[in-house]
Design brief:
Helix content: 40-55%
Low-confidence stretches: none
Number of helices: 4
Shape: elongated
Structural class: mainly alpha
Distance between the termini: 18 Å
Radius of gyration: 14 Å
Strand content: under 5%
Number of strands: 0
Mean pLDDT: 88
Order of helices and strands: HHHH
Length: 82
């Protein structure tokens, strides 16, 4: 998963082009976990974001439902405190 610095460098390639960009981060995962009453560490949230980045369906995109599904998967697997 690229860092914000790496993304910023990549965006310089586009110069003044118009872009459609959706950005999801660890804090989004942590917020959703809090709303659902799920204990989730920042490390776990980072792992979820990384996995979503690697495996998401580009046709469907990334939504709150996507994050919820991955969060549920991690909790079910017993990784919620990692």
């Amino acid at each position: 998963m690229p860092t914000t610095r790496e993304v910023t460098e990549r965006l310089r390639w586009f110069k003044n082009q118009h872009l459609a960009v959706a950005i999801w981060c660890e804090d989004d995962v942590l917020e959703l976990a809090r709303e659902k009453g799920i204990s989730c560490s920042r490390k776990c949230a980072r792992e979820i974001v990384d996995e979503i980045d690697r495996k998401h369906n580009a046709t469907l995109g990334i939504t709150w439902d996507t994050i919820s599904d991955y969060l549920r998967k991690y909790v079910k697997a017993g990784n919620k405190n990692r």
